[in-house]
Each structure stands twice: as structure tokens, then as C-alpha cells.
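Record type: monomer structure entry
Structure origin: computed from sequence
Chain ID: A
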Amino acid sequence: KKDIARYYKYDRNEWIEKIKVAKLNRIPRPLGKAEVDIGITHFKLLEKISEDKGKLFLILEDDAILCEEFTYNLRKIIAELEKVEWDICFLDWCNMIPPRKRGSVEIVDQRGKEDPESWGTGAYLVKPRTAAELLRDFDHFTLNCDDEIRYLVKKKRLVPKWALPPLIE
């Protein structure tokens, strides 16, 4: 209960404001217990990461199913990310079928044309400085985790990327 009070608050007006920024079509509603638990876990992880000296971190939700050659493709994705500007890289595409691309691994930028379902937090890479920026001025979340992260990335004008092929199901 203490964590819920610290991290989550339902506010219909805030919900409406956030979905406008995130460019989502969602009906305001209080989150279910599972959604609140997932959000709390992600924001606690972001707090730990923001204080760390590491280079980047992989966040995986507990129900993530790793694709074949996960480690091999993750290494290739990290190598590709070193060539471009990025703040957060999504490794899944939720319920969306990713665009077909040539080659085994590619980093794409969906900004401006992304489907809301491409912002899954089932697996993503994040830097400590990005985690700190996501948390700067953070008081609580209102939306489900996928949508709240999308809102924060857009509000703070961070640079999201997506990995092809997706590394989890």
C-alpha cells in the first residue's frame, strides 16, 4: 500500500493530458492491481538504474519469452546502437507486426509514425542518464507502464529506437 501511494495516482484530468502528449486514444480509467504492480516495478528499476555507473541496462518483464539467438542478436543490437543517437531501445513490438527489414539486425526510428502498440515495455535497453531523465520531476504514474513510458519519452523529447527483429515475444 505504501508503494502504491508513492508511485501511482489515478487522476482523470491528468490521464487526458498525458494521452494527448503521448498521442494515444485511451479511455480514462483506474489501473488494475497487476498494471499498478508492473508500473511500480519499472519505476523502482529506473530509480536503481539512474544511480548506477553502468553503461546500459536491459529490463525484461517476467513474462518475456526470449527469441532464438537472443544473446547473439542483443550483442548485434548494442553494436548498432553505438552508431546512432538513442536514449531507450524497445526490443519487443507488443501485439504489432514489425516492419519487414533486410538483414538480421536493424535499429529503426518509428517516431511520428509509430503504432501505439510498438511501445512495449516487455523488454528494453535504457541508459542510466535516460532513467534519471525519465524520473526527473516524476511524482507518480497514471497510465499503464507502456503508455506512461511513451508519455515521458515524448514529453522529455528523448530518442527512442526499436530493434528488428524483436527479441522477445
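Annotation 1: The chain has a mean pLDDT of 88.
Annotation 2: The radius of gyration is 16 Å.
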